[in-house]
Write a structure and sequence with these properties.
The protein has 210 residues and is an alpha/beta fold. The chain contains eight helices and five strands, in the order βαβααβααβααβα. Helix 1 crosses helix 8.
Length: 210
């Protein structure tokens, strides 16, 4: 019997801490579900029981940069095998808060990981596989830092980094976007939420629902 299910789609949200991804992820998931689609919302690092344990280590335990990068990709490998690919194969859409672009931005751009080592890990963990659409929320680090501080939540070790770190992360995200313009859309995140939501809806509608 032929499988007639429509293929699942993989969408990722990226940006520095405080860029405002969370509420927009929820809005996009609601939009997709309103169209009758089955959507799996997830995050990185995390997304699986093992991934969440690794997330706790990554966010709170000091470690060598290369250990950090390898743990990020270890969590990602489990995420792909246990959750992302099974969902896509079942015809569900997957919306993830971060994926490999975050590792490029934070570990290569922010911390200075050798780009060749990053590429080797990327090609090992998911050769030829990328999200179909990545939305990078671009925001000045000083605005993002003020947003994070206003939440009153105890910051993790990434959120405690200095502004120059986030300047490098932001620059790396924009560089990654220039490297893959057909996949990555840069969203100006310093606008009212309703304007951003309208832009996201227009992007997704143009790509899949015309």
């Amino acid at each position: 019997m032929t499988d007639t299910r429509a293929p699942g789609r993989f969408i990722t949200f990226e940006g520095i801490d405080g860029a405002g991804k969370s509420s927009q992820i929820a809005a996009l998931v609601a939009l997709l579900e309103s169209r009758g689609l089955s959507v799996d919302q997830t995050r990185e690092p995390g997304g699986t029981a093992l991934g969440e344990k690794l997330r706790d280590l990554l966010l709170h335990e000091p470690m060598h940069l290369e250990t950090e990068a390898m743990l990020m990709f270890a969590a990602r490998r489990e995420h792909l095998a246990a959750r992302i690919k099974p969902a896509l194969e079942a015809g569900r859409w997957v919306v993830s808060d971060r994926f490999t672009d975050a590792t490029y931005a934070y570990q290569v751009g922010g911390r200075g990981l050798d780009a060749a080592k990053f590429a080797a890990l990327e090609n090992w963990v998911h050769p030829g596989f990328q999200p179909e659409l990545t939305l990078v929320f671009d925001l000045a680090p000083e605005i993002a830092a003020a947003r994070v501080a206003s939440t009153g939540v105890n910051p993790d070790r990434f959120e405690r980094e200095q502004r120059d770190f986030f300047e490098r992360v932001r620059a790396a995200y924009l560089e990654r976007a220039r490297m893959a313009p057909e996949r990555i859309r840069v969203i100006a995140a310093d606008r009212p939420p309703q304007q951003i939501r309208a832009e996201l809806e227009a992007i997704v509608t143009e790509r899949w629902f015309r």
